[in-house]
Every structure is written in C-alpha cells, then in structure tokens.
Amino acid sequence: HNGRVVPAHALAYDQESGFGLVQALAPLGLPAVAFGDAARAMAGDPVVLADGIGQAVRAHIVTKQEFAGYWEYLLDEAIFTAPAHPSWGGAALIGQDGRLLGIGSLRLQMSRAGEIADINMVVPIDLLPPILDDLLTRGQVAKPPRPWLGAFSAESNGEVVVMSVAEGSPAAEAGLRQGDIISDVRDGEVDGLADFYRKLWQNPAGAEIPLRVVRDGRETWLRVKSADRNSFLKKPQLQ
User: Fold this and answer.
1) Are residues 101 and 164 located together in one domain of the fold?
2) Who's near 138: CB < 8 A, 6+ residues apart?
3) Residues near 113 by Cβ (< 8 Å), separated by ≥ 6?
4) Both 106 and 64 in a single domain?
5) Contact yes or no for 50/63 (Cβ under 8 A)
6) Is residue 237 domain-resident?
7) Cα distance between residue 195 and residue 160, in whole Å
8) Residue 159 has pLDDT above 70, yes or no
9) Total structural domains in the chain?
10) What does the alpha-carbon distance between residue 239 and residue 225 come to, in Å, rounded to a whole number?
C-alpha cells in the first residue's frame, strides 16, 4: 500500500489447492478485498494482476482449463492470464468489479498462432471459502490427506515420465527413477498426468500402491508405500 513492511506468520497451508494463509503481526489499517466469483469469469475478460509491492499489470483471461503440475498437483479448472506479471507469486487477480478472483501461482509459456507467449496460472479464489474455517482454526483442512509419492513427473505424448524423485520420499525408497514411464496404477492404465493423479488419489495416504513402470523398454512393477505429504514438511522450531 505504502511500502511499509509488516512482519507476518505463516498460519496455514492446503496441499490440494496450494492456498496458504499469512497472518500479519501488526495492524494493517486497510480494508480487505472482497471475494469475487471466479466461476463466472470468462475468457477475454479484462483483469488486473497486482503484486505485494505495488506493481500491477493489466491483463485478460486467456482460458480456463485443467492444470496438472509436476509436483503431484491438480486443478480441475485454473485461470490463465496474459500478459504475464513479472512478480506473479501470490499476486492478486482482480476482476472488473474490484473483487478478488484468484491468486497468482506460476509463470508458463503458451504457444498461440505459432508464437510463444508468457502467461500466468492463477488458482481460483472459489477454492478457498469451503476450507477457510478449517485453515483459520486448524492450520489445515479437516479431511484425510491424499497419498503422496514424491515423484516429479511430466506428460509426454500422453505418457507420464518421471523427471526426478524427492530425496527420502516414498518414490525414492521404492526405486522409482528418472526416465521411468508410469503406465499403470494398480490395474488401471494411465492416460496422462491428470489421470495418473486421480488414480493415485483413489487410495488413502499410507496405502501401498502398485505401479507398472516401463524402464529401458522393459516393464516392471514397483510397490510404493505412499505417505502424507505434510509429514515431510519442516516444522517450525521453538527457540
């Protein structure tokens, strides 16, 4: 607002949406931005993406579509805007009515008409109200956690290819390697990254999940003992 720096505390985080709450430790003396309705926003709508240091970019919504992230993350419908904001992380997406439509998450590249353009991926604010009370009172959402493998994967021609695995993760312990192609989860064939995640999340965290893997042209089965991703996060330490 005026360049003033205020200390804050990381209050809560939700793995599924990617939303986190930060609590200011001093009065801000500013009104809160009202939530908008991201579901009603349409491709072509003019918007503003504003960061925390006063830089705003006038943009428009390019599209709204499914987004699968390499870190075991999936949104049924993300918002994509252009031109890209140079400081997109945590930036507010503001609609024409001045209401909050989402929070900036990524900077990506998109090919249109043979040209490459930088765009932003924005997490719709509609995902926050259903979980807000839990985040405020518990620091996390009161629901069973999804199973986590710790595999960083990409989609190539409809196949899920492992790029790397997190050190000490269930995927690493099971022997999943860079370059492995994940073709099946249990008895279900995998059709792309989003489908892989949905099949994976049909199981509870902690379940042993069989994966059919193609490695160097040969098929093999790995059994991965999944985990709760939150248990791998570093916790604040009292001094």
Assistant:
1) no
2) 12
3) none
4) yes
5) no
6) no
7) 10
8) yes
9) 2
10) 34
